[in-house]
UniProtKB/TrEMBL annotation:
Keywords: Cell membrane, Membrane, Transmembrane, Transmembrane helix. It is found in: Cell membrane. It comes from Sphingomonas chungangi. It is a multi-pass membrane protein. It holds the Pfam family Polysacc_synt. Its main location: membrane. It comes from the Bacteria. This is Lipopolysaccharide biosynthesis protein. InterPro entries: Poly_Biosynth_Transport, Polysacc_synth.
Amino acid sequence: MRHWFRDGVFRAVLRNAGYLGSTKLVGALLGLIALIAAGHGLDPVTFGMLTLVHTYALGAGAITKFQSWQLILRYGAPALARGDESTARDAIRFAFGLDIASGLVGMVAAMIALPFLAGDFGIDGTHLPLALIYCTLVPTMSAATPTGVMRLLDRFDLLAKQQIATPLLRAAGATLAWALNLGFPGFVLAWYVADITGDLILWALTVRELRRRGMIEALRPGLMGTARRLPDSWSFVWTTNISTSLNACWGPISNLIVGGVLGPVAAGLYKIATTLLDSAGKPADLLTKGFYPEIMRLDPSSKHPWKLAVRTGLIAGGIGLLVVALILVGGKPFVGLFGHKYLAAYGLLSLMMFALMISMASFPLQSLLYMVGRQRAALAAQAAATIVYLGMLSILCRLFGLTGAGTAYVLGNAALALLMLLPVLGSYRRRERYAPALT
């Protein structure tokens, strides 16, 4: 492994992941504190209702959002490298326009659909007004332009500082709601304020950084005109958006399916298990955020990016194996922090944790497909795996309850890894025909 660290790109990936990881762990712990406070301040039914309200808004944003940060890096990174700020500004303007349009559409669609879908998702009429208000967060939740700008300008240090804001505010608000016995409305307010404040802080940092670099006019939103100046931008946007949105909606939609089939109590237990897994899987997320900008700058016809993917995947898989061991040793008492009434979540967690190793070790696969211009192959794999996962989740939940939900989660992640791996192997064998992704 000493040889690996002679690779400057490999060091850059780890450095950027390290920036984000410096506060991500603290943020994850604060998020768990918020859930623990909610678990003690609410009964299992209202705790599950809180997770359903939050995940409904997340799901709406995940379905309608564009992955505008990928667009910014795809067109902005090579432009800045050759001193072409005009193209970089166009990429940001296009991304910003997409965020505004998709955010407003997502909010309106979520609010219109909620009265018709609430019963199916386990949200009762008593809590419907607060759920409708919570949908107003969709535009800021789904905006990815600030994140893309920060990655483009290599300000992972600012991203690291900002990402602690939302979990810190949520933990403080949830603790206050528990201490003052504010009930369900108090916890919804805590979640709402934390989400919108954290997003506004990120926007403020983005504005400051663009102004410092003389690029503030990049925040004039544009769509058709700017897209015409970015070759094949609409094709790239739609393909990557649908693929990533399918992946992002797994958590919210699966939680809603569990709630609709098994009730809000089961949804709360499932939320605890998935939250712990998400927290444990953060190292892979951090590596992805550092890996993607670097991989897009490499020559896919060489072996360099493929070796980089194997090395980072092995590191992530090793971390996943370590996390599984920690869950086996200390998972049950940790889940007990939520309250003894939620200990049933540990059995679910001990089943779902095997998906963690799979997802962490396979995280470079999608970026490799984007690097060689095979976004459609990534989309096909993601769509097929999502259909398999959600279909198995609906069936196995009805047959085996929460055990079925956990089994579907593991099989869904395995299907996604396999379906991504097959086109990656084919691309590697034909790598000589690929030109650099960004020229």
